[in-house]
Amino acid sequence: MIPVKAIALAAALALPTLAAAQDAKDAVEARHGFMKMLGINMGQLAGMAKGEIAYDEAAATLAAANIVALTQYDAPALFVEGTSSEDMPESEALPAIWENPDDFRASFVALREAAAGSPDAVKGGQGNLGPVLQKLGGACKNCHDDYRKDD
C-alpha cells in the first residue's frame, strides 16, 4: 500500500510542475501567434509600399487598424518567467526581458504610440505608407535589438 501512496503523492506534487510547463509552452505559442499577426499586417503594408502588392486604401487601413488593435493587447504578460531562449529552445526571448522588465514594457508602449493614428496616415496613396512603416519598423527593431535572439 505504501508504494501506491508514494506514487500518488509524487504524481500530485508533479501536477503543478506539469501545469507550469504547459503554461510556459502556451505563453511562448501565444506570443509567437501575436508576433505572427503583427508580421502579417506589417507585411501587407510593406508589400504595398514596395509596389509588390497593389496599393488598396481599404486594405492598408485595415492592416494598420489591426496593428493598432494588436498593440492594445498586454503582450508583455505573455513573457512569463522560465520562457527565455535559455529555458526553451523554441523561444527567441532573451533573458534581458526579465532583467529589464520596465524597459521591455516601455518597448511595447513605444510600439503602441508608433501605431497610433496609422489607419488614417496610410490613406491617400502608396507614398503615405513609408513614414508609417518607418515608425512601426523602428519600434519593432528597437525591441528586437535588445530583447530578441538573433536568427
Automatic annotation (TrEMBL):
Binds 1 heme group per subunit. GO terms for cellular component: periplasmic space. Pfam families: Cytochrom_C_2. The keyword RNA-binding does not apply. Keywords: Electron transport, Heme, Iron, Metal-binding, Signal, Transport. Residues 1-21 form the signal peptide. One of its GO terms (molecular function) is electron transfer activity. PROSITE patterns: CYTCII. InterPro entries: Cyt_c/b562, Cyt_c_II, Cyt_c_prime. Heme c binds at residues 140, 143-144. GO terms for biological process: electron transport chain. This is Cytochrome c.
